[in-house]
Amino acid sequence: MHHQREQTMTDDKVTVIGLGSMGTAIAEAFIGAGHPTTVWNRTPHKAAPLTAKGAMQAEAIEDAVAASPLIITCLTTYEDTHRILEPAAAVLPGRTLVTLNSGSPAGAREMAAWAVTHAARYLDGAVKNVPSAVGASDTLIYYSGDKAVFDAYEPTLKALGGDTVHLGDEIDLAALYEMAVGALLLPTLAGFFQGAAAIRARGLEAASMVRFTGKWLDMIKSLLPVYAREIDNRDYSDASSSVNLFLAGAAHDQDLARETNVDVAWLGPLNDLVRRAAEAGHGDHSISALTEVLSKPYQPISPSG
Length: 305
Hints:
By secondary structure, the protein is of the alpha/beta class. It is built from 13 helices and eight strands. The protein has an eight-stranded mixed sheet, sandwiched between helices.
């Protein structure tokens, strides 16, 4: 019985590599959940707040990797992850590596190939939230890769977010969904910032927009299942929000620009997309028909490519 308890504690160990704001939040979540946590960062002083909470700090990357069966990296890119882990490659065999960095599906496939070459098990993941949300019951974190590996570590990974999802065995799915879902962020924020600039030009405060913008985002959220169904069925005949409606609205952008002296040039390519959809015969179709204009013939890439 004592031996079984000891084995469980050993399996609970986790190493976190990369202590930026997200990596620090991840390490704090593991510590808070009672996992013996080893941390490593290129600049060691960032570990101080974590060691004060009970983390063990490894001086060398080899020691950090050797300390735990589960290695979580939270670095900026796959290239950074590969470069930092390379000196520890000899101690990777038999361990599980989980990357929580940004990058493309191709980057995930290359990282997986490197990990497998060094006899490590590998999951790719993405935190779909801000660092302060790590550890919350509704925080979404998704992973891709071997389901058996995910199942083995799911209880540990759930310390990072209650909405923990396995997307599938294909290793690059997390990176694909990370980019596909993440594509919404900058255009949405740029729209808010343009609105804030227009409001400010009238001497009003951006804060006065927040409640109304939130309601607008709620409305957009409610439309996503409708548009997804139209796209999946390739049926754009419901024109309650038609391409032509958006085309007419584009004319108002220049009026706003002249009145408020706000730069709306970033909308040019978006309005061009709407025009191209109308020219392709989608004028009376749902605005979701833009998906057809954005879709070029798909060229599958081999796993090694």
